[in-house]
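Let's practice the habit of predicting before peeking. Look at the sequence and jot down your guess about where helices and strands might fall. Then scroll down.
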Amino acid sequence: MKFCWTTLTVNDMEASLKFYQEIVGLPLNRRFIAGPGVELAFLGEGETEVELICDPNHPAPGEINGISLGFVVKSVEEMMAFVESKNILIDSGPFQPNPHVKFFYVKDPNGLRIQFVENMSELR
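Done guessing? Here is the structure:
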């Protein structure tokens, strides 16, 4: 079995696309109308994508606890400076639970926690 995408319900497609393209760095693969007032967008590289669904009849659930999406970055310090320069608040971190990994969290426009992870052992 192959994992193909994670679906996120969003309230504002433009704000969410801007976040996932400009902050996370995911390329937009396709975007289309899927029914009256319903819009979908797929972003990402490789085998797994992030699917955004904007449907005014089914708003985003708001603050989501216990779920996050993680993305590898070259440097946690550089990424923290970048997100702060874009006026995005650091939700928590940085954390370094062992010598091989360091990470921090921000929230996307819909309240989902996004984790930026530096795999330090891979960079050596």
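How did you do? The chain has two domains: 1-58, 61-124.
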